[in-house]
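tool_call: predict_structure(chain=1)
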Amino acid sequence: MNEIKLPSTPKTPFVHFTNGELTLKGRSIPENSLEFFKPLIDWIDAYKSSPSQETNVHVQLEYFSTSSSKCLLDLFKRLEGINSKVTILWYYEQDDDDMLEAGEDYEAIISVPFKMIEIEEIS
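tool_result:
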């Protein structure tokens, strides 16, 4: 399975999807969220055919737009169809109740286990 690796920009997160480890880190406020997330969703669709025994999804976003929120939900829903152990590790800053709540909202909607991880500061 080929990996996806995209550097972060002021408007898009760092992305690294490789076999068993998927990472989104930074800010997600792209001009066109659908266009940005489409290759990521396509990658997950392809990954479903031969996933690792365990898949960890690291989401460490400091901020995301409403349109990114919808795309994240689509991405998470695709993870429900993977026939292996999938865990979403949702990182949030110590005082960022909004980001914690966003993770809890996704957790309530998605049938993939979430692990909330409080960190001091997103770097």
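agent: Residues 4-119 form a domain with the Transcription Regulator spoIIAA fold (CATH 3.30.750). Proceeding to next step.
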